[in-house]
UniProtKB/TrEMBL annotation:
It is found in: Membrane. This is FieF protein. NCBIfam families: CDF (TIGR01297). Keywords: Membrane, Transmembrane, Transmembrane helix, Transport. The gene is fieF. Pfam families: Cation_efflux (PF01545), ZT_dimer (PF16916). InterPro entries: Cation_efflux (IPR002524), Cation_efflux_CTD (IPR027470), Cation_efflux_CTD_sf (IPR036837), Cation_efflux_TM (IPR058533), Cation_efflux_TMD_sf (IPR027469), CDF_Transporter (IPR050291). GO terms for cellular component: plasma membrane. GO terms for biological process: intracellular zinc ion homeostasis. The chain crosses the membrane at residues 14-33, 45-63, 75-97, 117-136, 157-176, 182-203.
Length: 344
């Protein structure tokens, strides 16, 4: 396992333990109060525990090294885990709405709200802290499974806060001899819908990963690295592609190099490219460079001394994320913007 994978796996253990403890606390609050709104919070905690266990297994599996049957590693299991977790969140939201409608049709009394509210406030605080830490670590280590677990906990916190506010109103109303118990199932309905929306978002992000949707943030970071460590012999870069497998990044790019370069010189530039990207992403990146010889139109953007130069150097090609993702070498005919030049 890499250091990032170990961090992800160990933190997911914390997420599972905390989720299990909060599940017990929330169901205790539900049995004390008989509140359907608190039941929604407790029901979502069941999903938290199941999803946490699934995420733990996914992180363990994704950290396994590549083998004959999985040459790119096992990182995609995180996307499967996130998809299932998102589906479970949606199902939990639907169950909550069902229970809320049932309570609207056949109201039940609420009791001991003061004790129940204290338990839910404590659970919400713990959820938010652990969820925020999980999201930060997941983003840092590019683990969609850990990030999804953290978002799930923070969603649980938001729903808890709404429930706390709503039931506090019911509690205050009771102290003033007003019966506002009808707010209990209404609050549950609202947050059931909110939970479904959140679960749908988790599913969408996981499906984007399964479909290899381009990650603009990572592409921008790679572009920044290439610009910062740009070599005079990197005349142009195009067809930049990035695929994520868990915390592992597979990067491919076509690099235009001087046509008279030897294989040894190309290998040196390949090593330089690797080092430039690893300054940002460390050992989690696997880079493949596809060298291409320069063309006549490349002379205007090449600083290398060459006996067959067709034109004087005018300026570097300005690299940005969108430009590097294009499929062909860049030149005037491709209508790209060149430093200090107007388009032709």
């Amino acid at each position: 396992m890499s250091d990032a994978s170990i961090e992800n796996y160990n933190f997911q253990k914390i997420v599972v333990v905390v989720s299990a403890a909060l599940l017990i606390i929330k169901f205790a609050a539900y049995f004390i109060t008989n509140s359907v709104a608190i039941f929604t919070d407790a029901a979502e905690s069941i999903v938290n525990v199941l999803a946490g266990l699934m995420g733990l297994y996914a992180l363990y599996l994704s950290a396994k090294p590549a083998d004959k049957t999985h040459p790119f590693g096992h990182g995609r299991v995180e996307l499967i885990s996130a998809t299932v977790e998102g589906s479970m969140i949606v199902i939990a939201g639907a169950m909550i709405i069902f229970e809320a409608i049932k309570d609207l049709m056949n109201p039940t009394g609420i009791s001991s709200l003061d004790v129940g509210l204290l338990l839910i406030i404590f659970a919400a605080a713990v959820n938010y802290i652990v969820g925020t830490l999980a999201v930060r670590k997941g983003r840092k280590n590019r683990s969609i499974a850990l990030e999804s677990s953290g978002k799930h906990l923070r969603t649980d916190t938001l729903s808890s806060v709404g429930i706390i506010i709503g039931l506090s109103i019911v509690y205050v109303g009771g102290l003033l001899n007003y019966n506002w118990d009808i707010l209990d199932p209404i609050i549950a309905l609202l947050f059931g819908a909110f939970i479904i929306i959140t679960g749908s978002g988790v599913i969408k992000k996981a499906m984007d990963g399964i479909m290899d949707k381009a990650d603009a943030e990572i592409l921008e970071e790679i572009t920044s690295c290439l610009n910062e460590h740009r070599s005079n012999d990197w005349i142009d870069i195009h067809n930049l592609r990035v695929i994520k497998y868990g915390s592992k990044l597979h990067v491919e790019m076509h690099v235009t190099l001087p046509f008279d370069m030897t294989i040894q010189e190309m290998e040196k530039e390949n090593s330089s490219l690797h080092e430039s990207v690893r300054t940002k992403f460390g050992d989690s990146v696997d880079l493949m460079m596809m060298p291409e010889p320069c063309k006549e139109f490349s002379c205007k953007h090449c600083k290398r001394g060459c006996a067959v130069r067709r034109a004087a150097f005018i300026g570097d090609i300005v690299w940005n994320m969108n430009l590097l993702a294009q499929e062909h070498q860049h030149a005037y005919g491709n209508r790209v913007v060149i430093s200090n030049l107007k388009e032709r």
